[in-house]
Amino acid sequence: MRNLKKLLTLALAGTIAASTVLTGCGKTSGSNAKEKGLKLTNVSYDPTRELYEEFNETFKAHYKEETGKDLEIVQSHGGSGGQARSVVEGAEADVVTLALEHDITLIEQAGLIESGWLSEFDKDSSPYTSTIVFLVRKGNEKGIEDWDDVIKDGVEVITPDPKSSGGAMWNFLAAWQYALENNDNDEEAAKEFVKKLYANVTVMDSGARGATTTFVENGQGDVLLAWENEAIATLNEYPDDYEIISPSVSILAQPSVAIVDENAKKDGVEEIAKEYLEYLYTDEAQEIIGKNGYRPSNEEILKKYADKFDLDMNLCTIQDFGGWDAAYEKFFVDGAIFDEIYNG
Q1: Separation CA 191–CA 337 (nearest Å)
Q2: pLDDT in tens, 202-225
Q3: Could you tell me if 131 and 47 are in contact, meaning their C-beta atoms sit under 8 angstroms apart?
Q4: How far apart are the first and last CA of the chain?
Q5: Which of 34, 79, 286, 297 is most buried per CB count within 10 Å?
Q6: Claim: this prediction has a pTM higher than 0.85
Q7: Which CATH superfamily is domain 132-252+314-343 in?
């Protein structure tokens, strides 16, 4: 893995560069791709930078072997919600690989993705999953073991903003589920719980990678509410400096993938886009996924990486909230529960 410290330091620059990339001026790959017009643009979310850096090279080699042609792959990263809005507003994207189903639904509602996309690929178009864990500094001075510890006075929490980050929405829902399960499903008690949690948030970045930068590079906060893959990457780079804590309740985070049909047709890359996303389910790609700290959808390959993951975690799912449309409406639209507890 490329040096994580360097990647974290450059995260902001990478996000800024994304807009340049989407206009065709960013770093691309494939020596003859421009001449042949074979270009695929993947708009993704913050923490997948390293995953797709490796996967794209593998897929290009596969495509070259199959067709004899070079392929240029343009990659963009940022907060998942912001990335979805950028595509709706006209940013170039042939495929999207975002943090949650709802962000892709927004693009579908704009008429850019055909209905039925969720069943177009296996596992509800989720070739990998993740969850939410706590990343703390070595020694865990504040004794953070579960969600109750995160809301204690004097504990500084780092988490991104649910208004722009898909990972932040997963964070919120995991905390909410814990509060419900420990308060006899009392929603008012759950509101008070998450209100205390967000009162402890000292920095709320726009995306998950920015939050990791704040915690790791800038040394702020006592605990980072993190994508599991982000926490694993940090621990790999700084094994003597951090610890991963698995809370008693978390959530099965299912990042989703889809072809942006309108754009792919316009660009003449429909078949390439389909093959690109299908290739994420191959054994070769699933190995890359596991190596990069995501949970492979292939159960046999997941077992090979069991030493990376706590497979005994109690994970709720988005279906416990009635699906993403219901969850988004209840918690994250303007004036909903998140605004109520954060601004109240």
Answers
A1: 8
A2: 999 999 999 999 999 999 999 999
A3: no
A4: 43
A5: 79
A6: yes
A7: Periplasmic binding protein-like II (3.40.190.10)
